[in-house]
Amino acid sequence: MRRVPTLDTPALPLAAAMAMAMAGAHGQPLRACASDADFPPYVFTASSGESGVAQDTGLAINVLQRALRRAGLEPAAVQRLPWKRCREMVAHGQLDIASTICTSTPAASTPTPHRCARRTI
């Protein structure tokens, strides 16, 4: 099975550079996904301001968006999906990168929060 690029893999710089180049070459924002499970402060949904509009945020999403801005590219369109579907969509080219730092094993279907504390960004 092909390894899916995520923000916690050693291949991140190469995977991110390739994905950013592909997105930039097509003039389209990077297509990213993150787990639909909330793991604050890494990935979670927060309401913003008085309007109370829900917005996906967290360290994993913010690091990805900042890297894209520094590269002069548009922010990524990040979808929150079940982790297994997120990884499969990246593996099949439907999305460009999986953005998360919480995994239990490479084949895990659901990220686990206890591993997040031992990871660094």
TrEMBL record:
Keywords: Signal. Residues 1-27 form the signal peptide. This is Solute-binding protein family 3/N-terminal domain-containing protein. The lineage of its organism: Bacteria, Pseudomonadati, Pseudomonadota, Betaproteobacteria, Neisseriales.
